[in-house]
């Protein structure tokens, strides 16, 4: 069992929400605990997928009210920390899986990479240096849900 942080936009594209729900089912089926920001979009979709798979999903909420969280969360933790909760999510994860992209998602991916937490990116940000190269550690890029789950399996030692 691993702790897998799933990050992505609160205002997500339908495709990202569909992928996140499928990822949630796959992660639950592998017995992983899923951590997310606990609100809408990718966070709500992954929580729904984990629930569908009878797994455990913990939402680290930005505000003070547990009721603001996705109804699909197993555990809703109001942090009162706003976006600073992203650091808690990243540092509590064995691997971070990003779905899609937003500024908040980019900050979580950057924080994970800067602190040595592996990242798997499904259709997310790609940051390049001025010379066009990929600087420093970079996310493992996945082209599908199956590839993303396989990459997580490889990082955490399989199921």
UniProtKB/TrEMBL annotation:
Organism domain of life: Bacteria
Gene3D superfamilies associated with the record: 3.40.50.450
GO cellular component, one term: cytosol
Xref: Pfam families: LDcluster4 (PF18306)
Alphabetical list of NCBIfam families matching this protein: TIGR00725 family protein
PANTHER family assigned to the protein according to its UniProt record, in alphabetical order: CYTOKININ RIBOSIDE 5'-MONOPHOSPHATE PHOSPHORIBOHYDROLASE, LYSINE DECARBOXYLASE-LIKE PROTEIN
Protein's recorded name: TIGR00725 family protein
């Amino acid at each position: 069992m691993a702790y897998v942080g799933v990050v992505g936009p609160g205002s997500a594209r339908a495709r990202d929400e569909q992928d996140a729900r499928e990822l949630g089912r796959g992660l639950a089926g592998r017995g992983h605990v899923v951590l997310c920001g606990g609100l809408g979009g990718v966070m709500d979709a992954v929580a729904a997928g984990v629930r569908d798979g009878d797994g455990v999903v913990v939402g680290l909420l930005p505000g003070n009210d547990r009721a603001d969280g996705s109804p699909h969360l197993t555990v809703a933790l109001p942090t009162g920390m706003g976006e600073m909760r992203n650091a808690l999510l990243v540092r509590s994860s064995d691997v971070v899986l990003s779905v899609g992209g937003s500024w908040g998602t980019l900050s979580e991916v950057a924080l994970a990479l800067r602190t040595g937490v592996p990242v798997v990116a499904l259709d997310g940000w790609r940051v390049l240096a001025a010379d066009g190269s990929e600087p420093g550690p970079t996310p493992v890029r996945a082209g599908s849900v199956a590839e993303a789950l396989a990459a997580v399996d490889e990082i955490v030692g399989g199921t």
